[in-house]
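Retro notes
What went well: the complex prediction finally ran end to end.
Inputs used:
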Amino acid sequence: MKTLSENKCFGGVQGVYSHASKATGTDMTFGLFLPEGVEDGPVPLLWYLSGLTCTHENAMVKAGAQAHAALYGMAVVFPDTSPRGDGVADDEAYDLGQGAGFYVDATEAPWAPHFRMESYILNDLTDLLFSEFPLDAERQAITGHSMGGHGAITLAAKSPGRFRSVSAFAPICNPSASDWGRKQFAAYLGSPEAGTAHDATCLVRKGALDAPLLIDTGTDDQFGDLLKTEALAEALAARRAEATVRLQKGYDHSYFFVSTFMADHIAFHAEALAR
Amino acid sequence: MKTLSENKCFGGVQGVYSHASKATGTDMTFGLFLPEGVEDGPVPLLWYLSGLTCTHENAMVKAGAQAHAALYGMAVVFPDTSPRGDGVADDEAYDLGQGAGFYVDATEAPWAPHFRMESYILNDLTDLLFSEFPLDAERQAITGHSMGGHGAITLAAKSPGRFRSVSAFAPICNPSASDWGRKQFAAYLGSPEAGTAHDATCLVRKGALDAPLLIDTGTDDQFGDLLKTEALAEALAARRAEATVRLQKGYDHSYFFVSTFMADHIAFHAEALAR
């Protein structure tokens, strides 16, 4: 692991690190905020998964998470959204290839060799974080924005017991029925239908999500039709799942929206992590 | 004036606008956060002047000001740091020319035709803001980061009575004695010495600052030697000026530092603006 930068921030340290990932076969970069007092014992960890076109950096500098994580003594990790580099497949579209890993393990050419973001998050980066930093593996929570909201909900549903709470900002809720999902699942997995195993709405319908869930989505989200919030809201209510879905009047898809509700999300996770 | 974007943010609106400036002879872009409830009457205005290489956008997306401004019902304007465009002089160095206006009116070629940031801020943009938006001209405060901290203190000192409070994050404190200043004053004004009229330390020594001042600077600021905080601290103490200079242990020059202390600065200005 290599330290790229460390900046003091809200009493803690915002670091950026890189490491060789077995899952992706590439070097991967991530941001990690460690709160003040981390030396006194392991601290809980919140995962923040980012959306299309983002790197580890966008949320780290724009979402305002550190202020609130510092209040609760919580670490926050900001992984990248895909493998990157010259030997890594890519596509001209902003929503396929580098910057658009969709948090699945690709099975199809040319993506299969490197696009293994589910394994990267749940195995490689997890192993690295808990071996290198004073983090408490028993107290993990997960959140994300847009494609990262899809990642947060689906990775939590696919790893029962791992995350005590799950939240999402404007998540892609039903990608196997959306243009934000069908194309990517076809490319990475061979068919849009293969994506149902990685679709928040489908997973919730099967009762796979075992952690409390908080979702915020703006009523003026410019990508509202692609998110399909209504499908997940229906599935959650039908399953009587412990969930809150808030439609926030006038907000759009930007970090101005994300940062506005960050305090609520971190308080929600802090409550679950304190139990 | 043209609206480039408007995003709902912390109950208010973060807008980006452009307008033709007489002072610079160019189109200028600025960000403006208007808090919720602005329609009920004019609200106070905090100016945030940015540092070298920044546009109107950096602080607007990274400094975390809106969260705190929203709490106090305060507007925040984020001006650009220089004129820009094809017909505008520039230099290869990051600290001269476009992105490095230093908040003075240039008198020398090739800068004089467009580099008039003091007039732009104090006249053009001021006139536009108070005619186009429900802002209270009697309740203005000013802050800034690095070169923008220099701008905040010096523009306040040069316009007595206009700003009720002044603050700065890691300001350039004594530019006429620093490599961040001497080169620029020589280029824009003809000599480093001409910069003493635009130097926070020199202005404070003359008793020109009539508003309370708050400064935060990190002990690990990588540009600490260029800032010359010690000169301004000495001048403030010698003048018995109403000022607080805080050296913050372990912090550097980044927005991670700025965002950490933003809440304190906005609370400081809110108190002055409530009087």
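What we learned: The CA atoms of residues 82 and 222 of chain A lie 24 Å apart.
What to try next: split runs per interface for comparison.
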